[in-house]
């Protein structure tokens, strides 16, 4: 399955004959998503990330994830060199990896030393065919950087690298009997240069130059692909695809924001915060797609947006979705949010203690009493909601918006924080618990938690057996 | 286009799991509790040598938010831990786990806090070094911090006892 391909990563190289490729492999990956760069963009602090990754980071924090320098999405520039590196490496990787895996039991040094001669004489074994192929890949790259590519099966990537290299190579002189202008590098007859220099505005006529040069330096079929591959980038970026500007959401009222979303034809449901987040994500997706050299269509982007929304656990289709749903996984829910729940309870308890003026009670969970809980549930739930909406981590706004009262919150935290005596409260809360979801976590959860933990322990401990002191 | 199939968080967590399995750092094992839920990991950390935690194996769990790696995971030790930077409920309080935006304690440098380029491996290594060298500037467990500062011997003794208890030995 291609899940294997999806999950291919730099560790693939570790036990092969080419362990050094692990570093190369990981250098071609985005540090945020750990995947190969997809439309790499360079920041003003010279770090490169996938377009979508860096846009998401910047819209969340406004800082470069690598060095934390402040940056803006408008300052991002596409890093075409890295893009071509990645494309070329992706093509070469499977073959090279296959080869490296097979060669893992061969003495690498000896192989490298003999490779040239031995291969020519070898039989038609598959190994050597592969080797030949991988080897020629390498040769091709080497050759192409010298600008004398004559490979039988040239690929676009190689040609493009070729072109890049030549672009910076001032010493290259095509033998066309012309000389180049010292200012703009345009090629012309020697006699015309002086006249030209008088009027030269310094804009390099690079496109003209490139075409003529690649025409002379490469095979006839190549300029064609060159012409097709090169202009595609600027054109996709500059034409119909306008970047979506960021909005200042706090300046927009809910209705204005809703209108904005409708104008963009994306779902306009949910509260202000949900819409703001959806707009941000859509802008990220859309703008990243604008940068891409292989832009996808709108339907796919909308699907991505939907997938993102579902992953965030707040599908726009059902505002009350999670908790109200019949098949709502109450155990999972309380399990997932256990930490937040216990934090909220601790918070509420602290406030209550302050109110009562009895600050001597310990913070420990065993200090909790059933009647405490009941009272907190009645008196303090408003502060829970406030706490919830302030707290940045995920799912919190879901708690805030999904739960009219904080009763499930209470239930969730009691699951682990409290001994069984709190069960009566659950009974009282049951009427308000949406869809009567059976929060019976103290009996349900703890056993469910334990076994996996042990399996992991057994499976993973192997090499780290405790040394008993 | 793998990105459109699975949430970014899941893909990245699977990758990190693979990397930690194939190339694990010394004294650390980590992985999802079950393959169904990659957002909850079980972690085992070996007590660093030359510290009172030496010889212990400390289970902990890590919970990843749905927007990981934009937001950091949380980490909670499952057994008892007597340490200035670990709450009594086991929650780890370390700067790498705090998002740069929120600085509840006002002492951490932004550069030490969470960033999406951080990985599970880096977090666990930070936690290991935290076990070896507590930061008592903003303790999560005030009593442990006090003890660590004022009576190092008692602190180490208490930690060692805890380690032995966790291994099922008499203190």
From TrEMBL, chain A:
Q: Predominant location of this chain?
A: nucleus
Q: What is its EC number?
A: 2.3.2.27
What GO terms are given for molecular function?
A: single-stranded DNA binding; ubiquitin protein ligase activity; zinc ion binding
Polar residues bias spans: 146-155, 214-224, 403-418, 457-469
Bias (Low complexity)? 229-240
Name the pathway.
Answer: Protein modification; protein ubiquitination
Which Gene3D superfamilies does this chain map to? Zinc/RING finger domain, C3HC4 (zinc finger) (3.30.40.10)
Cellular location of this protein? Nucleus
One family name in Pfam for this protein:
zf-C3HC4_2
Catalysed reactions, semicolon-separated: S-ubiquitinyl-[E2 ubiquitin-conjugating enzyme]-L-cysteine + [acceptor protein]-L-lysine = [E2 ubiquitin-conjugating enzyme]-L-cysteine + N(6)-ubiquitinyl-[acceptor protein]-L-lysine
Where the record annotates domain SAP, the positions are 249-283
Region (Disordered) residue spans: 110-159, 202-247, 358-469
The residue ranges flagged as biased composition, category Basic and acidic residues, are 358-372, 379-393
Q: Please give the InterPro entries that the UniProt record associates with this protein.
A: Rad18 (IPR039577), Rad18_fungi (IPR004580), Rad18_UBZ4 (IPR006642), SAP_dom (IPR003034), Znf_RING (IPR001841), Znf_RING/FYVE/PHD (IPR013083), Znf_RING_CS (IPR017907)
Q: Does the keyword Membrane apply?
A: no
Q: Does the keyword Acetylation apply?
A: no
On the tree of life, the source organism's domain of life is Eukaryota
UniProt family annotation:
Belongs to the RAD18 family.
How the protein assembles, per its UniProt entry?
Interacts with E2 UBC2, forming a complex with ubiquitin ligase activity.
Task of the protein: E3 RING-finger protein, member of the UBC2/RAD6 epistasis group. Associates to the E2 ubiquitin conjugating enzyme UBC2/RAD6 to form the UBC2-RAD18 ubiquitin ligase complex involved in postreplicative repair (PRR) of damaged DNA.
What's this protein's name? Postreplication repair E3 ubiquitin-protein ligase RAD18
* Species: Aulographum hederae CBS 113979
UniProtKB/TrEMBL annotation, chain B:
Q: Which residues catalyse the reaction?
A: 93
Cross-referenced SMART domains = UBCc
Q: Which reaction does it catalyse?
A: S-ubiquitinyl-[E1 ubiquitin-activating enzyme]-L-cysteine + [E2 ubiquitin-conjugating enzyme]-L-cysteine = [E1 ubiquitin-activating enzyme]-L-cysteine + S-ubiquitinyl-[E2 ubiquitin-conjugating enzyme]-L-cysteine
- PROSITE patterns with a match to the protein in the record: UBC_1 (PS00183), UBC_2 (PS50127)
Keyword tags: ATP-binding, Nucleotide-binding, Thioester bond, Transferase, Ubl conjugation pathway
Annotated UBC core domain residues: 8-168
The record's annotation in Pfam families points to: UQ_con
EC number(s) reported in the record: 2.3.2.23
Similarity-based family: Belongs to the ubiquitin-conjugating enzyme family.
Q: What is this protein called?
A: Ubiquitin-conjugating enzyme E2 2
Q: State the species of origin.
A: Aulographum hederae CBS 113979
């Amino acid at each position: 399955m291609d899940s294997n391909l999806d999950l291919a990563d730099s560790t693939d190289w570790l036990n092969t004959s080419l362990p050094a490729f692990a570093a190369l492999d990981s250098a071609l990956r985005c540090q945020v998503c750990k995947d190969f760069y997809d439309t790499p963009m360079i920041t003003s602090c010279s770090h490169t990330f996938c377009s979508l990754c860096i846009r998401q980071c910047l819209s969340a924090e406004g800082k470069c994830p690598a060095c934390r320098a402040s940056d803006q999405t408008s300052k991002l520039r596409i890093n075409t060199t890295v893009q071509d590196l990645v494309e070329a490496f992706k093509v070469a990787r499977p073959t090279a990896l296959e080869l490296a895996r097979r060669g893992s039991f061969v003495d690498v040094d000896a192989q490298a030393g003999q490779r040239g001669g031995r291969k020519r004489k070898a039989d038609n074994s598959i190994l050597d065919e592969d080797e030949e192929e991988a080897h020629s890949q390498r040769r091709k790259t080497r050759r192409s950087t010298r600008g004398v590519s004559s490979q039988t099966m040239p690929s676009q990537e190689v040609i493009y690298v070729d072109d890049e290299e030549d672009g910076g190579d001032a010493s290259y002189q095509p033998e066309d009997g012309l000389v180049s202008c010292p200012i703009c590098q345009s090629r012309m007859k020697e006699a015309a240069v002086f006249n030209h220099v008088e009027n030269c505005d310094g804009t390099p006529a690079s496109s003209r130059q490139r075409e003529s040069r690649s025409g002379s330096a490469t095979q006839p079929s190549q300029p064609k692909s060159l012409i097709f591959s090169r202009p595609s980038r600027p054109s996709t970026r500059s034409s119909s695809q306008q970047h979506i500007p960021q909005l200042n959401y706090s300046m927009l009222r809910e209705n204005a924001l809703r209108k904005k979303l409708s104008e963009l034809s994306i779902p306009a449901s949910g509260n202000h915060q949900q819409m703001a987040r959806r707009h941000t994500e859509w802008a990220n997706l859309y703008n990243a797609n604008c940068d891409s050299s292989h832009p996808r269509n709108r339907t796919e982007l909308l699907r991505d947006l939907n997938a993102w929304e579902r992953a965030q656990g707040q599908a726009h289709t059902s505002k009350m979705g999670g908790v109200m749903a019949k098949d709502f996984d109450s155990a999972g829910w309380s399990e997932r949010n256990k930490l937040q729940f216990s934090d909220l309870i601790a918070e509420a308890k602290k406030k209550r203690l302050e109110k009562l003026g009895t600050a001597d009670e310990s913070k420990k969970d065993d200090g909790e009493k059933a009647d405490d809980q009941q009272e907190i549930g009645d008196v303090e739930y408003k502060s829970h909601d406030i706490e919830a909406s302030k707290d940045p981590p995920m799912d919190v706004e879901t708690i805030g918006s999904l739960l009219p009262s904080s009763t499930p919150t209470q239930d969730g935290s009691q699951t682990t924080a409290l001994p069984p005596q709190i069960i009566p409260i659950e009974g009282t809360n049951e009427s308000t618990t949406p869809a009567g979801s059976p929060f019976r976590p103290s009996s349900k959860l703890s056993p469910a938690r334990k076994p996996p933990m042990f399996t992991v322990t057994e499976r993973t401990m192997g090499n780290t057996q405790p040394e008993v002191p | 286009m793998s990105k459109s199939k699975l949430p970014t968080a899941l893909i990245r967590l699977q990758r990190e799991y693979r990397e930690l399995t194939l190339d694990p750092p010394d004294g650390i094992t980590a992985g999802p509790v079950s393959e169904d839920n990659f957002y909850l990991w079980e972690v085992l950390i070996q007590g660093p040598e030359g510290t009172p935690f030496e010889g212990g194996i400390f289970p902990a769990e890590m919970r990843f938010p749905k927007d990981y790696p934009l937001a950091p995971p949380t980490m909670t030790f499952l057994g008892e831990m007597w340490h200035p930077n670990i709450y009594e409920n086991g929650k780890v309080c370390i700067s790498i786990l705090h998002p740069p935006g929120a600085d509840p304690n006002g002492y951490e440098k932004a550069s030490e806090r969470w960033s999406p380029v951080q990985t599970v491996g880096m977090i666990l290594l930070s936690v290991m070094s935290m076990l070896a060298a507590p930061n008592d500037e903003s303790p999560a467990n005030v009593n442990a911090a006090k003890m660590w500062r004022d009576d190092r011997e008692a602190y180490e003794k208490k930690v060692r006892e805890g380690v032995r208890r966790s291994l099922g030995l008499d203190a």
